[in-house]
């Protein structure tokens, strides 16, 4: 411990009650002496007064310090010698000796009693001070670190120290600590700039002032806080005037509480070998200055508080990492869709709960359809976020192959079961500590998957242990959709059921996770009813609708994370889609090309006609040749042109390597080269092959002469290494 006193320590003045007692006893000595003389002049017996004279030092020993007790005793002895030895000649010689000896003995007795009393008082005071310090230390251990918030932990330290230990307390931390980062190591010589996170003062008017706004404070190079941070030990001292305090003590940016302290103490906040900041304490002149024991007590409190601050910093860093991981795994924006207008929100859980595994997605599908997905991984932390990312990627992959909702959830259930087996530790492969620290609990998740078709205006949905979505049809109040409740993902062995719902154009869908409707202060039914009431209050935009729902429903301090998707359905009328039934005859290929060309002319897309004819020709030819009737051709016009050919065969086309002299096998390759995207989807009565063309073409170079045959176009790509066949 290093102590830097700026002036010598001054002993405190006597207590206010000691001086009147001292003066009273001196007056009593004079009064008793005068009474002796008066009684002696009257011829009365004065030996009885000597008994009162011997009591005066004893009374002084019970009330006064040792020095003042000696003064009273000597004054009493001097007056007794004067009165009994000189002014009263009528007393016998033996009586005088007896009285003076008694007065001298009373001095010795009073000094012994006073010394014993003072020793007992010091021992009792030491015990009281030690008990008070232990109580303060226990209170600090209980109150400081009640939360995992850095700023709140600093405020708790300041609140504990004020009144019982100091008149003013301030906690200054380095900026990286508030962000959850570790301060840069190295010497802290010269001016040091920190952030004032908390401060408390007395009297009550300053204590009730507004909280600090995290103002910066700079420690000069020779100031006590700077020396404390540089040496890593407490530094305390006293000030004689305001000029000296301004030179050695930083100015409080939030008020005048530390402008002229009488005694100051600076404690570095160090935890796990890292300096996080400093705790500053001051006392005014009406209190005793800090001593070495106070510095030890403050160092112990600050050491415990520093560990709590570092724990909060580490948790802040971990939570920031989890939130960053969570947000990076979620869609950064909801892209515009021809089927719906959508808006989404994600709210991480409070700091006491931690980041969870909620996610959402809006996935474009073939045929201008869209998939709306909301899911929730049970648990919190980085593992839940990582599992959420894997499930979202799996849903994207399964959605790309156009699986029905119930089949998609079945495959997703298998994936979750495999993830359970992967995350379960193997006792033979891990040591005991690793098994104990591993996440051995069940890995479960919930999911809601909905597919909306803007042409048929039908929505197909299935859910796995997830809350039912809400819908607000035009002119109606909000209600929950009746979707069969499937088991959570990871249970295995149980089927999922699909529900089909007709949604008029302009219907509002709300998909959410359970964190929105679960509350420890309300039952689930009340929260669900409240959600329907809020959704029934129509808002101009979807963004306002999301904010309105969250503002009125999210009111709990401790809650789960929340994912919310609000979508308004749109419809594609006959001006954007057209379909034809084709016969099972190869002569229908030419008719299909002509129909597509005429329709594109009506839509004002003549520049896309050649590519569309080529794609339609290939798709229809192979559907008639390898598929089965009925064969249907459908064109959908949106931001892109979608060509779809459906047949009754369940056999999907596949890619293969066509050799140089093979007569077939390149049709699908041509389609893949000319289209932006292409694919196949299965349905109950066959399959559909679709291709999406850009409007207008940006990257596809169409041949100049329209009379170029398909064989010539195929020959242009014959030298490519990857070839296809139907």
Write the layout of secondary structure elements.
Elements: H1 18-41, H2 47-63, H3 66-87, H4 93-143, H5 150-161, E1 168-173, H6 175-178, E2 192-201, H7 204-207, E3 216-219, H8 224-231, E4 235-238, H9 242-248, E5 263-271, E6 274-283, H10 292-329, E7 340-347, E8 356-364, E9 370-380, H11 382-400, H12 405-423, H13 432-437, E10 445-453, E11 458-464, E12 470-472, E13 479-480, E14 485-486, E15 499-502, E16 508-512, H14 524-536, H15 542-553, E17 562-569, E18 577-582, H16 588-602, H17 609-626, E19 631-637, E20 640-647, H18 667-674, E21 677-683, E22 686-694, H19 710-716
Parallel strand pairs: 11-14
Antiparallel strand pairs: 1-2, 1-6, 2-3, 4-5, 5-6, 7-17, 8-9, 9-10, 10-11, 11-15, 12-13, 12-16, 16-17, 18-19, 19-20, 20-22, 21-22
């Amino acid at each position: 411990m290093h102590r830097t006193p700026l002036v010598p320590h001054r002993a405190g003045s006597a207590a206010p009650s000691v001086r009147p007692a001292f003066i009273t006893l001196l007056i009593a000595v004079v009064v008793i002496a005068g009474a002796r003389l008066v009684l002696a002049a009257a011829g009365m017996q004065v030996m009885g007064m000597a008994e009162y004279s011997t009591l005066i030092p004893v009374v002084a020993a019970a009330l006064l310090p040792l020095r003042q007790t000696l003064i009273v005793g000597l004054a009493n002895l001097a007056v007794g010698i004067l009165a009994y030895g000189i002014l009263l000649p009528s007393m016998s010689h033996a009586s005088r000796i007896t009285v003076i000896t008694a007065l001298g003995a009373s001095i010795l007795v009073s000094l012994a009693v006073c010394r014993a009393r003072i020793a007992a008082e010091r021992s009792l005071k030491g015990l009281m001070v030690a008990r008070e310090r232990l109580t303060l230390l226990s209170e600090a251990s209980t109150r400081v670190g009640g939360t995992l918030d850095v700023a709140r932990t600093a405020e708790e330290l300041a609140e504990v120290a004020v009144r019982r230990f100091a008149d003013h307390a301030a906690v200054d931390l380095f900026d990286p600590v508030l962000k959850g980062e570790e301060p840069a190591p190295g010497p802290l010589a010269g001016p040091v700039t920190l952030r004032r996170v908390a401060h408390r003062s007395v009297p009550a008017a300053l204590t009730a002032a507004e909280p600090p706004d995290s103002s910066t404070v700079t420690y000069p190079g020779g100031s006590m806080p700077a020396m404390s941070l540089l040496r890593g030990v407490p530094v305390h001292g006293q000030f004689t005037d305001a000029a000296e305090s301004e030179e050695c003590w930083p100015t409080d940016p939030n008020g005048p509480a530390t402008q002229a302290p009488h005694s100051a103490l600076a404690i570095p906040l160090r935890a796990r070998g890292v300096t996080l900041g400093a705790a500053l304490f001051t006392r005014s002149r009406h209190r005793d200055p800090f001593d070495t024991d106070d510095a030890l007590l403050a160092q112990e409190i600050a050491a415990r508080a520093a560990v709590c601050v570092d724990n909060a910093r580490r948790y802040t860093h971990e939570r920031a990492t989890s939130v960053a991981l969570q947000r990076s795994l979620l869609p950064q924006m909801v892209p515009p869709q021809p089927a719906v207008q959508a808006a989404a929100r994600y709210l991480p859980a409070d700091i006491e709960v931690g980041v969870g595994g909620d996610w959402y997605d809006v996935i474009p599908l073939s045929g201008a359809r869209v998939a709306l997905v909301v899911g929730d991984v049970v648990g919190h932390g980085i593992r839940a976020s990582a599992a959420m990312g894997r499930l979202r990627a799996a849903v994207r992959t399964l959605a790309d192959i156009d699986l029905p909702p119930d089949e998609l959830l079945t495959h997703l259930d298998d994936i979750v079961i495999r993830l359970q087996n992967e995350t379960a530790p193997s006792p033979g492969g891990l040591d005991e500590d690793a098994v104990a620290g591993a996440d051995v609990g069940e890995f479960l998740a919930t999911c809601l998957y909905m597919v909306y078709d803007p042409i048929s205006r039908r929505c197909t949905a299935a859910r796995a242990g997830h809350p039912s979505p809400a819908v607000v049809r035009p002119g109606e109040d909000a209600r929950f959709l009746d979707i069969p409740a499937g088991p959570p993902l990871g249970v295995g062995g149980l089927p999922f059921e699909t529900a089909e719902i007709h949604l008029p154009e302009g219907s509002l869908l709300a998909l959410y996770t359970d964190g929105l409707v679960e509350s420890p202060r309300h039952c689930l039914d009340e929260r669900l009813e409240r959600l329907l009431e809020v959704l029934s209050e129509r808002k101009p935009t979807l963004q306002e609708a999301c904010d309105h729902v969250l503002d009125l429903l999210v009111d709990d301090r401790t809650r789960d994370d929340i994912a919310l998707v609000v979508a308004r359905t749109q419809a594609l009328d006959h001006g954007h889609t057209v379909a034809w039934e084709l016969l099972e005859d190869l002569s229908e290929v030419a008719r299909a090309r002509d129909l597509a060309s005429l329709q594109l002319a009506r839509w004002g897309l003549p520049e896309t006609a050649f590519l569309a004819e080529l794609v339609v020709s290939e798709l229809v030819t192979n559907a008639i040749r390898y598929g089965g009737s009925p064969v249907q051709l459908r064109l959908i016009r949106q931001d892109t042109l979608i060509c779809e050919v459906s047949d009754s065969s369940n056999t999907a086309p596949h890619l293969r390597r066509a050799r140089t002299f093979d007569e077939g096998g390149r049709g699908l390759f041509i389609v893949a080269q000319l289209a932006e995207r292409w694919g196949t989807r299965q349905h109950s009565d066959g399959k559909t092959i679709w291709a999406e063309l850009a409007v207008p073409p940006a990257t596809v170079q169409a041949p100049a002469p329209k009379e170029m045959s398909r064989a010539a176009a195929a020959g242009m790509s014959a030298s490519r290494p990857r070839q296809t066949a139907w």
